[in-house]
Amino acid sequence: MHHHRAEHWIVVAGTAEATRGDEAILTENQGTYSPPGVTRRLKNRANCRWN
């Protein structure tokens, strides 16, 4: 959790699992915003390695 920093994540390729209180599955060109003080996590759900 970041108390003083907001984050905006955008999936460029593949699929990601974003957890920010609730859980969401994001695909290409989708994103999510996390305000300061919110616990969040991002997980790569692709079956391939990062390039």
Characterization of the model:
This protein is mostly beta strands and 51 residues long. The protein has strands at 7-10, 15-20, 22-27, 31-34, 41-44. It is elongated. The strands form two sheets. A three-stranded antiparallel beta sheet has the order 3-2-5, with no helix packed on it. It has a two-stranded antiparallel sheet with strand order 1-4.
List the helices and strands and how they pair.
Elements (H helix, E strand, L loop, with lengths): L6 E4 L4 E6 L1 E6 L3 E4 L6 E4 L7
Antiparallel strand pairs: 1-4, 2-3, 2-5
Q: Tell me the strand order in the biggest sheet.
A: 3-2-5
| Continuous helix count | 0
List low-pLDDT spans. Answer: none
Q: Which class best fits the helix and strand makeup?
A: mainly beta
Mind summarizing the main beta sheet? 3 strands, antiparallel
Mean pLDDT: 83
